[in-house]
Amino acid sequence: MRARLRSWAAVGGRVAAARELAGFSQRELAERLGIHRSALTRVELGQRQLDALELSRIAELLGRTVEWFLTVPAETLASRRAGISADHDVQRLEDALDQVSRDVELLSDVGALTLAATGLQSGVTTLAEAEAGAAEARALLGCGDGPLVDLQAMVERLGLLAFSLDLGPGVIDGGYLRTGQVGVALVNGAAIAGQRRVNLAHELGHHLLADEYAADVSGGSGRSEREALIDAFAIHFLMPGPSVIARWAELSGEWDYPRQRLFVLSAEYRVNWSAVVSHAYTLELISRAERDLLQVQRPTVGDYIEVRGARFAQELRSPALAPAYAQAAMRAYRRGVISADRVVELLHGTVTLDDLPTPASDAHRSAADGRRASR
After folding, report:
1. Number of domains present in the structure of the chain
2. End residue of a domain, out of 70, 85, 112
3. Where a domain ends, among 215, 238, 261?
4. Cα(246)–Cα(282) distance, rounded to whole angstroms?
């Protein structure tokens, strides 16, 4: 369970944060609440307490639960593209990930969701150790060194619940936090398919390597170095070096130009163009000059199709929910623990009320009524 906030100032801070994310000015929210703007200012400063009805109304207007305003937010490790700063995008990610983690906690608390914890024993301080960690993760999965299919299901076997939601075309790639023994990852569904897979593999690195995580994502050299190690883990997890080198040799007899071979590798391993080009350079399959040229010669869909019809499978298309989480939500509903409206909310609109089966309690009641009627 989340720790409770201990002061009205902290609650007021949550009100201010939720108001800003919802796009309300103090005056606009105060008018909707039927109070003076100065009263709302005092609430946000912690100088005025809220009663239950007032907090419920604020939660309704800002699209939150009352619990959200009263509990400490989970600490999130957010991944963003290097060299770009966008605090609002980071806040949007943290907000979405916080809500997903609360939903995970709910399903865990009602006994509908359990997931085994997994981690790697050794620390990672060098690129070689990151590559070894990726090999160890694959060994845990028993999946060999070829392309990984259905990455979302794969990471779940390693104790990570993965979600893809559209966070908009901003700078945020994804984020990770731990709730209890379970890891929760959220990737930006607005990214292209291959990038979404790389982003999820990156969050898996934070999960398996027991990384320190915090809401501060402002950077610093130490953090940049750590992120580079996690990036190395991610690409070696998706594209193990020996496997890629062997496949490159096979493709060399079929395609004369490195660009064509990279098309095939990108499609087979389901990795975006920038990542596959950089990895090929790291593995010394292409020169620095070739890498620099290929990075700006980004392929089109037609390029992929031309090379034996190679194309991407659309993994992690938003909204994509962790399989165990979705099953747990339906399990809780069938048991009558959560309502129909709540399960639709938990499943992010991937089902409607008409799609839901009859809860077990209702089915039993109907059967009992039928037996009584037949007597």
Report:
1. 4
2. 70
3. 238
4. 15
